[in-house]
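Re: duplicated header lines in exported structure tokens

Our pipeline writes sequence and tokens for each protein into one text file. With two proteins the header for the second block appears twice in some exports. Here is an export where it did not happen, for reference. First protein block:
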Amino acid sequence: MAVKSISDGYHTVTPYLVVQGAATLIEFLTSAFEAKEIRRTLHPQGGIINAEVRIGDSVVMVSEARDEFKPMPSSIYLYVENTDATYKRALQAGRTSIMKPEDQFYGDRNAGIKDPSGNHWWIATHQEDISPELIERRLKSLFASKEKV
């Protein structure tokens, strides 16, 4: 039997976060985003060499930064059932807000938080299917109103 090019339960693109404090980040992902830890591989000298958590239907990989692999903050867009509730959980987990929940011109309600490793998580709930033309009109209107202020 042939081996699949993408393992079951994974998608074509999988975020890989290289951070200082990988265990702390995993604790945060578990409490704020209801992540489920799939596996954790420890480096012989200590720390996490690779861990995987599942958030919803997606896997996020996490590794402890080392000399040859420097920390690299990222930005991740995370779809959830309820932006406001997830944002509140993230704040209760001790994180920093970078944007309060707000309805956006492109049809999503989203908010932003910064995790303990400096990554930005854009928490979103899709609320409205809209055409590219309507997005463009709303965007122009949004920026026209900001120029008047």
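Second protein block, exported in the same file:
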Amino acid sequence: MTAEQQVAGSGVGGSADGGGPGALSGIVVADFGRVLAAPYMTMLLADLGADVIKIERPGTGDDTRAWGPPFADGEATYFLGVNRNKRSVALDLTDPRGLEAARAIVARADVLVENFRPGTMEKLGLGYEELSARHPGLVYCSVTGFGTDGGARLPGYDLLVQAMGGLMSVTGEPGGRGTKAGVALVDVITGLHAGMGVLAALRHRDRTGRGQKVEVSLLGSLLSALTNQASAYVGAGVVPRALGNRHPSIAPYEVFDARDRPLVLAVGNDRQFRALCDRLGLPGLAGDPRFATNTARVAHREELVAALSGPLARRDADAWFEELTATGVPCGPINDLAAAFELAERLGLGPRVPVAQGAAARTVASPIGLRGTPAAYRTAPPRLGEHTEALLAELGIDLGTGGEAAP
């Protein structure tokens, strides 16, 4: 009897805490993903109730386990940020016994997620065509850097995609050499797109009984997420350039110097601009033909900035924030993360939440608010291979002794 046959009647498939009311309770995810895009997506699924089984390389595990400092309780905070609510199983996929165990997990899974270099899963016998023939209801999600055709050999690192995909060309000061975003934003965007694709495929399976392959690339996700900048090129042939903190199509929409620290103004319409001028003691400015409309303000941006800078520099940023926000003018100071979390706490968003089991530290709250089936923080990010023995025993699999390698 193969491991897959052994698992056919097993009890694997409950959530990591043995069940729960999550919207995705009962969905099992075989997670071969590592680093950020795929683990971020599978963590979101786990928060919503899915049982995510994280399959890792013995000995080292997910690369991000070593991506520190900083560390918390011996684990890199990078890894901790995207791996809660999961079970870790350490399997050597180059050993036939480890590979058979992985196939047994997949046999009970609703979703498989992987972000190996294209062709790796096929070499292991875990490619979509082979697995879908055995498990027609499987939703198989592949996350790549540059797709599976011409870009198959290009390594999918966020910084490379930010550079090659155009994001760095529109980020940073004018005339500079390009600046990356302060986080691996492309990975996060790709994870969100992949999650949406998986949920759509699961909904389709509910209607038809058939799974399908979901393919998401970092480059494709970035080009889509460039929205107005990409549309300027596709629709009007305009190649956008970096404008620092300015917006290419809106003014005033940038950073000004208040008396004590920088202040952002994000004036999105003429009514807001008139209110701003009134509060700054510049009522005639709104009627000036150079500034009466957004299009005119963009065309005369330098004169506009010169007119606004003096009055804004006479008061502290917090004072302007209170006054201008009260009159409907979007503005705010540039916060560090400590101040940003404090703001979220003050606004009642509860941005830090405790993990119910096994962790004294808090975790960043899921932004997805579901009234009936809220996100749950059941378990801390797992130690490498923490659940291997228990899960394989649950599946009736005995690996014995094996190697410690993986692809």
